[in-house]
Automatic annotation (TrEMBL):
<dbReference type="InterPro" id="IPR003097">
    <property type="entry name" value="CysJ-like_FAD-binding"/>
</dbReference>
<dbReference type="GO" id="GO:0050660">
    <property type="term" value="F:flavin adenine dinucleotide binding"/>
</dbReference>
<dbReference type="GO" id="GO:0005829">
    <property type="term" value="C:cytosol"/>
</dbReference>
<dbReference type="Pfam" id="PF00667">
    <property type="entry name" value="FAD_binding_1"/>
</dbReference>
<dbReference type="GO" id="GO:0010181">
    <property type="term" value="F:FMN binding"/>
</dbReference>
<keyword id="KW-0560">Oxidoreductase</keyword>
<dbReference type="Pfam" id="PF00175">
    <property type="entry name" value="NAD_binding_1"/>
</dbReference>
<feature type="domain" description="Oxidoreductase FAD/NAD(P)-binding">
    <location>
        <begin position="210"/>
        <end position="330"/>
    </location>
</feature>
<feature type="region of interest" description="Disordered">
    <location>
        <begin position="166"/>
        <end position="188"/>
    </location>
</feature>
<dbReference type="InterPro" id="IPR023173">
    <property type="entry name" value="NADPH_Cyt_P450_Rdtase_alpha"/>
</dbReference>
<keyword id="KW-0521">NADP</keyword>
<dbReference type="InterPro" id="IPR001709">
    <property type="entry name" value="Flavoprot_Pyr_Nucl_cyt_Rdtase"/>
</dbReference>
<dbReference type="InterPro" id="IPR039261">
    <property type="entry name" value="FNR_nucleotide-bd"/>
</dbReference>
<dbReference type="GO" id="GO:0003958">
    <property type="term" value="F:NADPH-hemoprotein reductase activity"/>
</dbReference>
<feature type="domain" description="Sulfite reductase [NADPH] flavoprotein alpha-component-like FAD-binding">
    <location>
        <begin position="16"/>
        <end position="144"/>
    </location>
</feature>
<keyword id="KW-0285">Flavoprotein</keyword>
<protein>
    <recommendedName>
        <fullName>NADPH--hemoprotein reductase</fullName>
        <ecNumber>1.6.2.4</ecNumber>
    </recommendedName>
</protein>
């Protein structure tokens, strides 16, 4: 499959050896299952390359059309919008004949790692790691193909590679734990851990403002577990009246579409409120009022005075986790708060001053964001 030294490949092309992109020995099934990306939509340049492997002129013309400038709109509607990956493309263009070494070396991109922020505190759960995952499952548009009953054929569901795999392993784990068979093996995942950018202030009395809608609540859950643990340790080490002055101040902004469907960790958050770990919980349900969508940045804006005082007077830390757009909107909202609230103080801020202030907070570890697109 691969040459182990520089020289000519089977196509008589000169190449250099850069090492195998995966561990060996390895089966073809393992390569296709774990290392190659077979589900992402191919780029237009990939379609042009694939046209060279089509043995029928019709398939070749279709691929060249989709890869051309004139076919840009067709590419968007038929490949991107329909979420057509390489597997579906091979079915749509059955004359494609690709040698395995070409598939691995030229056609397929390799799977990129999926990063999930850990949603548990190691002090509380020293022997396990929790993650918060939204399982991606979307219906593909119904095409023109008809069944024998002349009804449109429903295409297969588009499923996220990593999230679906994790969900299936979790289901298998639930099944094996309830099984009495001694031969049932618990499921496993291939994971690695890298250092988190979320660091709590060393002083327990320093306020923290957490902004994590959807699965962005993951690190906030870990931070709340940590703060609860610290408070409990302090109470055990000191007399209760001595520890009272060290009460932490924690604020969480959480948002989701539907309160009854995706308000995750609801019971945990209620418990944190009841035991004093979570001082304030601001909730935004974007689909609650169809005439007015409300997001976490809107709630943050409503609490401008509180936010400004916590950050500028009490050295509060700000943590943000979620989508890139949300992160951008939160940053812009914080700038607006700094500018407007500083007008009544002796040192008013301009747009640039506010941007520089947030930049300094970021450099000092007091404004931390983990965002994804």
């Amino acid at each position: 499959m691969f040459s182990l030294k520089p020289g000519l490949n089977p196509d008589n092309e000169l190449h250099e050896w850069h090492g195998l992109p995966f561990p060996t020995p390895i089966s073809v099934r393992e390569v296709l299952t774990r290392y190659l990306d077979l589900t992402s939509a191919p780029r237009r340049s990939d379609l042009k390359l694939l046209s060279n492997y089509a043995t029928q002129s019709l398939d070749r013309k279709v691929l060249l059309r989709l890869s051309s400038k004139d076919g840009k709109q067709d590419y968007k509607s038929k490949i991107m919008d329909d979420k057509v990956g390489l597997v579906q493309l091979l079915k749509l263009c059955p004359s494609l004949t690709i040698p395995l070494e070409h598939l691995i070396g030229n056609i397929c991109r390799f799977q990129l790692p999926r990063y999930y922020t850990i949603s548990s505190c190691p002090k509380v759960y020293p022997n396990s790691i929790h993650i918060t995952v939204a399982v991606t499952q979307e219906e593909r548009p119904v095409g023109n193909k008809k069944s024998n009953g002349d009804l449109p054929l429903k295409p297969p569901m588009f499923e996220g590679v990593a999230s679906t795999h994790i969900a299936k392993q979790h289901q298998n784990g639930s099944s094996s734990s309830s099984s009495s068979s001694p031969s049932s093996q618990p499921p496993s995942l291939r994971v690695f851990v890298r250092p988190s950018t979320f660091r709590l202030p060393t002083d327990l009395s320093t306020p923290i403002i957490m902004i994590g809608p959807g699965t962005g609540i993951a690190p906030m859950r870990a931070l709340l577990q940590d703060r609860q643990y610290q408070q409990q340790q302090l109470l055990e080490e000191k007399k209760e009246e001595d520890a009272a002055g060290y009460n932490n101040y924690n604020i969480l902004y959480f948002g989701c579409k539907n309160e009854n469907l995706d308000y995750i960790y609801r019971n945990e958050l209620i418990d944190y409120q009841n035991d004093g770990t979570l001082d304030k919980l601001y909730l935004a349900f974007s689909r609650k009022d169809p005439n007015k969508k409300e997001y976490v940045q809107h709630l943050l804006r409503q609490n401008s005075t509180e936010t400004f005082q916590l950050v500028t007077e009490h050295n509060a830390y700000i943590y943000v986790c979620g989508g890139v757009k949300m992160g951008h909107d939160v940053t812009e909202t914080l700038k607006e708060i700094l500018i407007e609230q500083s007008e009544s103080s002796s040192s008013s801020m301009t747009q640039q001053d506010a941007a520089d202030y947030l930049s300094k907070l970021s450099n000092d570890g007091r404004f931390v964001q983990e965002l994804w697109s």
